[in-house]
Amino acid sequence: LATQTHNPSVIRIGESVTVGGEDLLVIGGPCTVESLAQMEQVARHLAPSPVQMLRGGAFKPRTSPYSFQGLGDAGLTILSEVSQRYNLPVVTEVMAVSQIEAIADRADMLQVGSRNMQNFDLLKALGEVNKPVLLKRGLAATLEEFVFAAEYILSSGNPNVVLCERGIRSFDPYTRNVLDLGAVVALKQITHLPVIVDPSHASGKRELVAGLARGAIAAGADGLIVECHPEPEKSVSDARQALSLEAMVALAESLRPIAAAV
Ligand code: PEP
Ligand code: MN
Fold this sequence. Notes:
The protein is α/β, with parallel strands linked by helices.
């Protein structure tokens, strides 16, 4: 298998960020890009902190078709403007092959969401893209299915894949999903790809995020992707799990001693 070697991959994102090496990758930002002012506020607050990269959805995979579906192309324009102004690379979700070109033009990393982990045509097409891919684990995907999804991208020509554990569906809705730290440890052993953790979608509640995030780093994760917002309770999506910008920075600042001890 293309994912199976013992030499950990270090993947470059944008000009100055890497993942899989010595440095932790911390990505922060809202669930959804809502406006230029919102993304400006996020970037201005996070730029001087250990958060190295921004997230924000322009094309959103919403459970209900009646929920806000994202700003689309206008959201990509906002992301790329803010990215350049604050020198922070951006990751945003791609849901369809038809969106790849526009997103690859303006984002530094393309995210495949949980709901598309086995969209094999999308994975094959991302194999032909010259940008790294953030592949999130499916809602109920086994590790074998997850690794084969990554294989689709690698075997189609793109070696720059970062795996993301974001919680798997189980019986108890108290936490939105169940963060599988066993998967993080196992994936680090059976693949050479960087593995990051999304404690926001894994928990669904902001007061659970920091604890899971620190646990993930202690388990050997190469980084985190965390949702935060200038006014968390006003987020258009996933408001309940969004951290304040202050809490985001405090979390990022608390990680270094944990990473150093792993
Ligand atoms: C997201 O990161 O915005 C998202 C929708 O996450 P997931 O695909 O893990 O549900
Ligand atoms: Mn979200």
